[in-house]
Design a protein that fits this description.
Elements lengths: L2 E5 L9 H10 L4 E3 L8 H10 L3 E6 L19 H18 L3 E3 L11 H20 L4 E4 L15 H11 L4 E6 H7 L3 H9 L6 E6 L15 H10 L5 E4 L15 H5 L5
Parallel strand pairs: 1-2, 1-8, 2-3, 3-4, 4-5, 5-6, 6-7, 7-8
Length: 268
């Protein structure tokens, strides 16, 4: 049965951040994810989780200077010590909030920069992050992101992400399968889900959804999500599916797509 987690960075923006937890719980969600928790002390977020009966599923490690345009540190040469500190901070938050998935963003690469050098740094940093996270029983996930939404992002394809995880060989390093990004870059979502879900090494550690092409609710656009939800169930995926989309209008008003799963016992 698909289990859906509300992404509180994109959903419920009609509320202040700490009020989004209660709004999600009132709509029937039992889990949440978001991009970054670092503006708030861990006890403030933990209180919202506890008070609203929510599980924290995922958040991102610090990405560098986000407001200045940076989109992750993991592949950036010369930033290795900053990257190590970012994982320490993220693991402290994960310990407080209780999630066992941490998304590490690769970062941007310029057209004149060496992809070989970035990849070498990326591999070493991911191996370090997985080693640091293993004692905390946290899985590091890496996400291919489309270059239409994020030009210059280092990692774009599912097969490349799987190959990186397999080469590193850490048991707690997996790929985050965002259906929205994958559809834009590659398409053929069902084939790729079948290919990667049952890999002996690496595999899929988290799934996210959004309508394509406009990143709205998953009941609009070119992707047949009911078919994919049935497929994901049939492949034995037991994790959460993050709803990382921008509601067309009010978040609660746009949740009609989830009603069939609740009515059949396949609740979020």
């Amino acid at each position: 049965m698909p289990r859906f987690a509300a992404n509180l960075t994109m959903m419920y923006n009609e509320h202040a951040f700490l009020d989004r937890f209660g709004a999600a719980a009132r709509d029937g969600f039992r889990a949440v994810e978001f991009l970054f928790p670092y503006e708030f002390p861990p006890p403030e977020i933990k209180a919202q989780l506890v008070d609203n009966g929510l599980k924290q599923v995922l958040f991102n490690a610090p990405p560098g200077d986000w407001t200045g345009g940076e989109r992750g540190l993991a592949s950036l040469p010369g930033r290795e010590e900053e990257f190590r500190r970012s994982i320490e901070i993220a693991l402290d938050y994960a310990a407080a909030l209780g999630n066992d998935r941490l998304h590490v963003m690769a970062g941007l690469i310029g057209p004149q920069q060496s992809r070989e050098l970035h990849r070498d740094v990326y591999m070493k940093n991911l191996a370090l992050a997985a080693s640091m996270a293993r004692a905390a029983r946290v899985t590091i996930v890496i996400e291919p992101i489309n270059t239409r939404d994020m030009p210059g992002f280092f990692l774009n394809r599912q097969d490349e992400a799987q190959a990186i995880c397999e080469e590193i060989g850490a048991p707690n390093l997996q790929v985050q399968f965002d259906c929205y990004h994958c559809q834009i870059v590659e398409g053929d979502l069902a084939v790729k889900l079948r290919r990667d879900m049952k890999r002996r090494n690496a595999g899929i550690g988290h799934i996210q959804i959004a309508g394509v092409p406009y990143r709205n609710e998953p009941d609009t656009g070119e992707v047949n999500y009911p078919y994919l939800f049935d497929l994901i169930d049939s492949l034995g995926y037991s994790g959460w599916i993050g709803c990382e989309y921008r509601p067309r209008a009010g978040t609660s008003d746009g949740l009609g797509w989830i009603a069939p799963y609740r009515h059949t016992g396949r609740a979020s």
